[in-house]
Automatic annotation (TrEMBL):
GO terms for molecular function: FMN binding; oxidoreductase activity. Keywords: Flavoprotein, Oxidoreductase. The lineage of its organism: Bacteria, Pseudomonadati, Bacteroidota, Flavobacteriia, Flavobacteriales. InterPro entries: Aldolase_TIM, NADH_flavin_oxidoreductase, OxRdtase_FMN_N. Residues 5-322 form the NADH:flavin oxidoreductase/NADH oxidase N-terminal domain. This is NADH:flavin oxidoreductase.
């Protein structure tokens, strides 16, 4: 498949079509105000991206409850006070021609007390001295996801993406290692997936038929089982509960090392599933035009750009201009990011990523 195919429109089950196959991955920048309000740095970042040629732009992970915070200066969507800033972000994305989505996030047991987080583990065994949240508390957090989605809709976003990856709360409940509950949210795979399904179904009911729902899924670490996640994904595809799956891999080319699917690419385990009208995309070291094009050949409907977007805000436009485009080699000097328009707050965040910013560079 030619790189030019990346610029074909993509329709969804709900809402408008994406103008091309480039989706901006949700990128944690830690540049919001301390109360979760979108800062001037958030707005400038969004304005840059809005002119970058993407088909859909996701925000960074936004807290659906104040106590679900994982990162200092994390974007928030848990209060109506956040609406003015979110509305401005949605407007900038819309004016640039892309679709927009807020990534909805709750840190679960990984909520950080030092910045106001209240750990909410699925199991009493996960964190010493902290009991599992009750059934009623699970239902409260479920309802907070739904309320946050309605807030995103009110702000003018085309949809939301439910963060079900990396051991955050929905991912945590999926894991047999982190979820030993005996209520309706624990035990069987169906019960462990119930939290996620209720969030998705509740958002659809609350936000109506024109609102887009994405779901971010990771399949590594935290005791997650590939076979189980494939089974749940197959059911979600079959029921067309979401508009798109955002498969978050560390490397889009990685291979399964053990178990039923040993030797297959992680991606193929999911692209082989019948997906009806649901779209599937992948994130993971997509740094070049050629790799993005290859992923369409491998069964993806779209690609999620992360690190390459931080290096070059207008990655899709670079690819359109040059089908052989490749991102700058990592690590880069901090001044390279600064000259590209990244805030000092964002640059400091990227210093925490291995091999992204050259150590000691000013």
């Amino acid at each position: 498949m030619a790189v030019s195919d990346l610029f074909k429109p993509l329709t969804f089950l709900h809402g408008p079509a994406m103008r091309n196959r480039f989706m901006l991955a949700p990128l944690t920048s830690q540049q919001s105000d301390f109360d979760g309000t979108a800062s001037e740095y958030d707005q400038y970042w969004m304005e840059q991206l809005a002119q970058g040629g993407y088909g859909l732009i996701q925000t960074s992970a936004a807290t659906i409850e104040a106590g679900g915070i994982a990162f200092e200066r994390q974007l928030g969507i848990h209060s109506d006070d956040h609406l003015p800033g979110l509305t401005k972000m949605a407007s900038a994305i819309r004016n640039g021609g892309a679709l927009s989505a807020v990534q909805l996030h709750h840190a679960g047991h990984r909520a950080k007390p030092s910045i106001g987080g209240i750990p909410a583990p699925a199991s009493s065994m996960t964190l010493e001295g902290i009991k599992a949240i009750t059934t009623e508390e699970v239902e409260r957090i479920r309802d907070s996801f739904i309320t946050a989605a309605k807030r995103a809709q009110q702000a003018g976003f085309n949809g939301i993406s439910v963060h079900g990856a990396f051991g955050w709360i929905l991912s945590e409940f999926m894991s047999p290692n982190l979820n030993d509950r005996t209520d309706k949210y624990g035990g069987s795979l169906e019960n462990r997936a119930r939290f996620t399904i209720e969030v998705i179904e509740g958002i659809r009911q609350a936000c109506g038929p024109d609102f887009q729902i994405g779901w971010r899924l990771s399949i590594e670490r935290y005791g997650l089982l590939l076979e189980e996640l494939r089974e749940i994904t197959a059911s979600i595809f079959d029921r067309e509960l979401i508009d798109y799956l955002d498969l978050a891999l560390w490397d889009s080319a990685q291979v399964v090392r053990e178990g039923t699917f040993k030797g297959k690419t992680m991606l193929s385990v999911f692209t082989e599933l019948p997906r009806k009208g649901v779209r599937l995309g992948v994130a993971g070291k997509i740094m070049s035009a050629q790799r993005a094009g290859e992923l369409l050949d491998e069964g993806c409907d779209f690609v999620l750009i992360a690190r390459a977007a931080i290096l070059q805000r207008d990655f899709p436009l670079q690819v359109k201009e040059n089908p052989m485009y490749d991102s700058p080699q990592l690590p880069v000097m901090a001044n390279y990011l600064r000259q590209g328009g990244l805030s000092e707050r964002f640059i400091d965040t990227m210093r925490g990523w291995q091999t992204f910013v050259k150590p000691g560079s000013l």
